[in-house]
Amino acid sequence: MRSASLLGAVLLGFVAACNPAEENSSANSEALTPPAEKLFINGRIYTANNSREFMTSMALRGDEIVGVGNIVANQDNLDGLIGQGTEIIDLEGKLVLPGLHDAHLHPIGAMPIPSCNLENIPMSLADIVAFAEACLEEDDMANDEWITIELWNFAAGNQPGEDYKTIRQALDAVSSEKPVILLGSDGHHYAVNSVALARAKNDAGAVVGFSAETLASDFAALAPYIGVDDSGEPNGKLTEDYALSAIGAGNLLSAGIEKRRASPELMMDVTLPRGITSFLDAAADPNTLDIYDRLVANDAFHARAHLALFYDPSTYRDDQGVVDFDRLLSDAQVVRKKYERTENIEADFLKLFADGVIEGDPLSEPPTLPNAAFSRDYLQPIFEWDEESQWVKVSDYVGTDSELCVATRAAFAAEEEVDIAAFKTENGFHPQQCAKSNGVLQHPEDVIMDYVQKGDAAGFTFHIHAIGDRGIHTALNAVEEARANNDSNKNHIITHLQVVHPDDIDRIAANDIYASFTFAWAVRDPQYDTTVIPFIDRVDGPGGMYDPAGYYIQNGYPAESIREAGATLIAGSDAPVDTKDPRPFTNIEAAVSRSIYDLPPMNIDEAISIYDAVDAYTINAAKALKQDNIAGSIEPGKKADFIILDQDIFALVDEEKAAAISDTKVLETWFGGKKVYAAEE
């Protein structure tokens, strides 16, 4: 066995080969360099450095990487590299990546607590009833005030049948005594029973309930967020939190919080088995941050977290309706200051919703329009049931500019009575389908502009949810103005970017904005797509729903166009939206193939390379989270955050086997030089 001092000299040469700044170290200092504690050899290590290099070996000391290089060691020449106590770990050719960064995660919501969970599986109304009844028998939620069921797939399934025509009827069958709520898998859609609908309070605090009558009076402003049947009565479907607040269900968005408080370690079960060592909590509720505190106190927090604090500006309005941004930002600064004293947690982001969601509801009567802010009016498709596919299809479109629709809108505006049944018989569609809408911003535009400017001036970075092209345009305007007025160089994030107007592509890079994508959604999903594309493009022509000339297909999730324009791509799962599993390798597969369901790709021109996809999860996201000086790549001087995989995802792409990327398993996750997760054999 060679001496530790000789190993120190040899290892320093190994480090210096990768870090030229150390090449001039004196011989004396080389001799005093302590040996590596761990030396990984025979691997395929993707460094994610500026040259996107692969190496075979890396050395660790404490929580840092002290060397990366191409040393190939075997049993015959190992003793030239070992000091007393140095541990040699043979990677046996496995792929090593920097620890993954999930730049859009809701880790508390994704914690795997026991619950009634539909797991986003499409179900008919009858199947939902059967599931809920069975779950009630097993779960303790029978003792709760509300019967709460998570991860309801609002965009697929929900087919009516002989017993249940609407989801309201289905949930009434679950309980006629207690309020029942389905929490949509996207965090924006909900469904409730009649008991819950009857709880709605108007602005005066009186319980008047949601009904056709109150939607035209007390709740006229909320009407676009309430699904109705062909008689105008609520069908049980609700969109956005405004409607939940009216029925007293706002606190249900943090349902199960006490179970999460009791088992804070479950947060690490969300991240570490997926190789996630850093994340942005994309809408951190200040009232639930004690879960982080408990993990830290237990020395069980193995991540570098940035919190995007969510404060709803509408709750900070004064008596004149003016948002008190000073009070809002003061509250945020208190939390930020608190976490300045906490290692590995920073509360330096703010979450802002620019708009809502772009899914409509083809199963409502009339079909509910999307509410995301769009650059033009949504179309009014006429849907019919297709027995063969057991789903809806578009048979025609309403001419909203026709004389009939102009007159019908005038009649509704004048509060004249319209005979709905006669209108449908004569014209083939519901009279409310003459309505025009291009969606709404989540807040008045001046509120969005002021919030971003004042928050930027206060030193916060924004994480802005923007879905529709007008919502994205407004977010860009806000960032652009803040940077100009504050002489700011903040690199804000816009997330989702579901439909981006071509004129705004270059503005993302021009304003140094990080473009955050959940790539698993940039794929074909026929039932889901039926809730979106027909409201934007006509799909009854020869090109069908995936007509390459369609506005949505051309401009939906335009990742490669944004990258080519010079912006930096980052990746996030948005878990538990869609699924509680952050599934990073499913997202990477979708990024490079624009397909995860064995279907043709969704606009293959917007696919990105495997290098860009991995960098979006590593070095790029580390830059967005302002920690690329210590994480995001495997380089000397950085923290030893890395993962070991069971297959080489770069090789899979080279071999045209990208469809297997989603099968990738994390064998080990290392954080700060310690193995914090190992897969079971």
What does this structure look like?
This protein has 4 domains: 140 residues, Urease, subunit C, domain 1 (Roll), CATH 2.30.40.10; 131 residues, no CATH class; 228 residues, Metal-dependent hydrolases (TIM Barrel); 117 residues, no CATH class. 28% of the residues lie in helices and 19% in strands. It is built from 23 helices and 25 strands. The strands form 5 sheets. The protein has an 8-stranded parallel beta sheet with strand order 8-14-15-16-19-20-21-22. A 6-stranded mixed beta sheet has the order 3-2-7-23-24-25, with no helix packed on it. The longest helix has 17 residues. It starts with a helix and ends with a strand.
The overall pLDDT average reads: 90
CATH C-level category of the largest domain: Alpha Beta
Amino-to-carboxy terminus distance:
33 Å
Given as residue ranges, the uncertain stretches (5+ residues, pLDDT < 50) are 1-13, 15-32, 73-80
Number of separate domains: 4
Tally of helical runs: 23
| Shape descriptor | globular
Strand order of the largest sheet: 8-14-15-16-19-20-21-22
Q: How large is the share of residues in beta strands?
A: 15-25%
SSE blueprint:
Elements: H1 4-18, H2 27-32, E1 38-41, E2 44-46, E3 54-55, E4 57-61, E5 64-69, E6 87-90, E7 95-98, E8 100-105, H3 125-138, E9 147-152, H4 167-174, E10 180-184, E11 189-192, H5 194-197, H6 212-215, E12 226-228, E13 234-239, H7 240-246, H8 257-262, H9 266-271, E14 276-284, H10 290-297, E15 304-310, H11 325-339, E16 345-353, E17 381-386, E18 391-397, H12 403-413, H13 420-427, H14 445-457, E19 461-466, H15 469-485, E20 493-496, H16 505-510, E21 514-517, H17 526-530, H18 551-555, H19 559-564, E22 568-571, H20 584-593, H21 610-617, H22 619-624, E23 642-645, H23 649-654, E24 666-671, E25 674-678
Parallel strand pairs: 1-6, 2-7, 8-14, 9-10, 14-15, 15-16, 16-19, 19-20, 20-21, 21-22
Antiparallel strand pairs: 1-4, 2-3, 4-5, 7-23, 10-11, 11-13, 12-13, 17-18, 23-24, 24-25
Helix pairs in contact: 3-4, 14-15, 20-21
